[in-house]
């Protein structure tokens, strides 16, 4: 990075301030900042990776960093000015979680930021706290694992205590620990080949020529894992609609739904269109996918994606899916309910999401999920298929919703979702629950049902 360009740590600090000050989503604020810079100035892949690591890492380890900082402070962290707090967090993250950064560099750069954004007192303060932490890490003492497993796991793996308590009770300490570890890994970005335009092998060759280090996914026939890549918006293959960014486990949903050319399919919670466009492509751009969502601005993204991918068999409609049933009774060959959910299966994707959720979501969301499923199901024609999916691991949002629905709607029966998996991953599972620590994909739930003829 040249001298007149903002230093990587300063860019990271800017994004952190947006997350903390304006409540911005870390992944969105970071992508906007990096995309802007990728277009305006030459930002190297190495810089991009370092900035991403700093932002994601600092946000993700947030509560643990604050707790560690408090071991070196004589006043509450809450009393420290937000920008200085973020400079300290960035420094602590580098000191304790980034082995490749020398402690001196972490401290010096933090002091430089304090010089630019603070005053003489804050420079001294930041310098004192971070050098003390670097010199005396033994002052940080975690709660004992045996006596306080929830507190220990929450701090060690930087997850909220309410969630750890839930998982320890349901899964046990060992499994909870494995799951937390998986949630803390950085997932590989995956994309789905637009098979209307290009075969996966040819896209792999094309991406490699564009400087992407990539590999075919084992889970789906269209999936590609991008291990290293330049900013995606700079790739012509993206502009030409040769692929869609989509998580591997999310790509399984359309396969389990099993769209056929000429079908009429309703995607009840369709925006921003990851699954809608996949379904439309599997239908070979024939028939119709009606992609509905409660938000017009999200449906606009569905339309943008459809246009870029050259799909003309998608129609979008703003509506509340709890009203779907009376609008299209028995009309659809297949219906997908990719329900709004807690997103607890995709914590590794969004660094701040674990801190944004409270246990209340598991009280509120199931009511909406059940109402959407019950209404959308009314659209399924006799012998038609209904798929319910979420990106969460919690039974209240998954198995319990489907079991209650089946009890109340004897016209529907469960089909073994595992049997509809593409490639060689078929399982005997009736309802499919994927886990980050077991399957190395996002935590995802898929159930397939059929209406009696
Ligand atoms: C899990 S996301 C869908 C992701 C989408 N299927 C995809 O693959 O890109 C859930 C969606 O449900 C929408 N939603 C929330 N409440 C809804 C409602 N009552 N009716 C319809 N859509 C709703 C949200 O706006 C959100 O876009």
The helicity comes to 40-55%
Q: What are the low-pLDDT stretches, counting only 5+ consecutive residues below 50?
A: 1-5
* CATH class categorisation of the largest domain: Alpha Beta
CATH homologous superfamily designation of the largest domain: Vaccinia Virus protein VP39
Structural class of the secondary elements?
alpha/beta
- Largest sheet: number of strands, sense, barrel closure: 8 strands, mixed
Number of domains: 4
Number of strands: 12
Average pLDDT: 94
Could you tell me how far the N terminus lies from the C terminus, measured between alpha carbons in angstroms? 65 Å
Number of helical runs?
20
Bound molecules: S-adenosylmethionine
Shape: globular
Question: Which topology of the largest domain does CATH recognise?
Answer: Rossmann fold
Structure commentary:
Helix 1 crosses helix 5. Strand 6 (288-293), helix 15 and strand 7 (314-318) form a beta-alpha-beta unit. Helix content is 48%, strand content 15%. The strands form 2 sheets. Strands 5, 6, 7, 8, 9, 10, 11 and 12 form an 8-stranded mixed sheet that branches. A 4-stranded antiparallel sheet has the order 2-3-1-4, with helices on one face. It has 4 domains: 8-139, NusB-like (N-utilizing Substance Protein B Homolog, Chain A, Orthogonal Bundle), CATH 1.10.940; 149-182, no CATH class; 189-245, Alpha-Beta Plaits, CATH 3.30.70.1170; 248-451, 3-Layer(aba) Sandwich (Rossmann fold). The protein is of the alpha/beta class and 453 residues long. The chain has helices at 8-22, 26-40, 45-60, 62-70, 82-97, 103-117, 120-135, 149-156, 161-171, 173-183, 200-209, 236-239, 248-257, 274-282, 296-308, 324-327, 353-356, 361-377, 399-408, 436-439; strands spanning 189-193, 213-216, 223-228, 243-245, 264-267, 288-293, 314-318, 332-338, 380-390, 412-415, 432-434, 444-451. The protein is globular. The structure holds S-adenosylmethionine.
């Amino acid at each position: 990075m040249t001298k007149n360009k903002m230093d990587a740590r300063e860019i990271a600090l800017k994004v952190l301030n947006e997350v903390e000050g304006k409540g911005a989503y870390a992944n969105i604020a970071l992508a906007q900042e990096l995309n802007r810079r990728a277009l305006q100035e030459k930002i190297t892949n190495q810089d991009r990776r370092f900035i991403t690591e700093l932002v994601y890492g600092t946000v993700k380890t947030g509560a643990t960093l604050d707790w560690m900082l408090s071991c070196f402070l004589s006043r509450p962290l809450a009393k420290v000015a937000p920008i200085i707090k973020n400079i300290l967090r960035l420094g602590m993250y580098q000191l304790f979680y980034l082995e490749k950064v020398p402690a001196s560099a972490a401290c010096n750069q933090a002091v430089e930021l304090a010089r630019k954004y603070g005053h003489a007192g804050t420079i001294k303060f930041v310098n004192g706290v971070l050098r003390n932490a670097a010199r005396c890490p033994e002052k940080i003492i975690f709660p004992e694992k045996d006596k306080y497993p929830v507190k220990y796991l929450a701090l060690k793996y930087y997850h909220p205590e309410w969630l750890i308590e839930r998982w320890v009770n349901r899964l046990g300490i060992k499994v909870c620990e494995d799951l937390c570890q998986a949630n803390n890994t950085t997932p590989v970005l995956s994309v789905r080949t637009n098979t209307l335009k290009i075969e996966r092998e040819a896209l792999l060759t094309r991406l490699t020529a564009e400087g992407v280090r990539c590999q075919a996914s084992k889970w789906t026939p269209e999936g590609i894992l991008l291990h290293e890549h330049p900013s995606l918006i700079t790739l012509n293959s993206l502009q030409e609609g040769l692929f869609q960014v989509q998580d591997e486990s999310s790509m399984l949903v359309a396969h389990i739904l099993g769209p056929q050319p000429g079908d009429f399919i309703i995607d009840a919670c369709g925006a921003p269109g990851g699954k809608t466009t996949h379904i439309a492509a599997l239908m070979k751009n024939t028939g119709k996918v009606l992609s509905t969502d409660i938000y017009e601005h999200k449906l606009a993204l569905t339309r943008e994606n459809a246009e870029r991918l050259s799909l003309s068999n998608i129609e979008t409609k703003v509506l509340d899916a709890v009203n779907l049933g009376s609008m299209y009774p028995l009309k659809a060959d297949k219906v997908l309910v990719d329900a709004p959910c807690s997103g607890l299966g995709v914590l590794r994707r969004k660094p701040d999401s674990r801190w944004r959720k409270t246990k209340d979501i598991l009280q509120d969301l199931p009511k909406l999920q059940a109402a959407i499923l019950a209404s959308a199901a009314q659209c399924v024609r006799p012998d038609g298929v209904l798929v319910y999916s979420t990106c969460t691991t919690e039974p209240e949002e998954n198995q319990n919703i489907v079991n209650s629905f089946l009890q109340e709607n004897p016209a529907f029966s469960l089909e073994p979702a595992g049997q509809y998996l593409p490639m060689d991953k078929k399982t005997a599972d009736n309802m499919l629950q994927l886990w980050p620590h077991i399957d190395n994909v996002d935590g995802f739930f898929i159930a397939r049902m059929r209406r009696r003829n």
